Amino acid sequence: MEMSEIKNRIRDTIEQLPADKLKIALDFLEDLQQSEEDATEALLNEPGFIEDYRQAKEDIRTGKMVSWNAIKRDV
User: Fold this and answer.
1) DSSP per-residue codes, 28-59
2) Domain range for residue 49?
3) Buried (b) or exposed (e) across 36-57, using 16+ Cβ within 10 A?
4) Confidence grade of residue 10 (pLDDT, cut at 50, 70, 90)
5) What is the pLDDT of residue 37?
6) How far apart are CA 13 and CA 17, in angstroms?
7) Chain segment 48-71, per-residue pLDDT in tens
8) CA 67 to CA 75: how far, in whole Å?
9) Which of 1, 19, 22, 62 is deepest in the core (most CB within 10 A)?
10) How many domains does the chain have?
11) Residue 23 lies in a domain
12) Backbone angles phi, psi at 66, to 5 degrees
């Protein structure tokens, strides 16, 4: 589903919600947004995260990776 279609469906649904459910939807969306921001901030504040992230991007770019099949365990 395209992003524009998703947004249109959200708008259409919002237009049909009664006020009490609209408030619940707003609370939920704000919680989603805040949770994402909190998680991002926590990662950025983790000592060494930025360097590890940059190194991981470089490893991917240069093909220095291990296949998932090579490391997975039977669970």
Assistant:
1) HHHHHHHHHHHHHHHHHHSTTHHHHHHHHHHH
2) 3-65
3) eeeeeeeeeeeeeeeeeeeeee
4) very high
5) 85
6) 7
7) 988 998 998 899 889 888 888 887
8) 18
9) 22
10) 1
11) yes
12) -115, 135
User: What are the structure tokens assigned to 52, written together?
Assistant: 């590890």
> pTM for this one?
0.49
14, 25 Cβ separation under 8 angstroms: yes
Would you say residue 74 lies in a domain? no
Q: Is 46 left (phi over 0), alpha (psi -120 to 50) or beta?
A: beta
Q: Given pLDDT bands bounded at 50, 70 and 90, which one contains residue 75?
A: low
Residue 39 lies in a domain: yes
- 33, two tokens: 């947004």
In a domain, 71, yes or no: no
Tokens at 53, concatenated: 């992230």
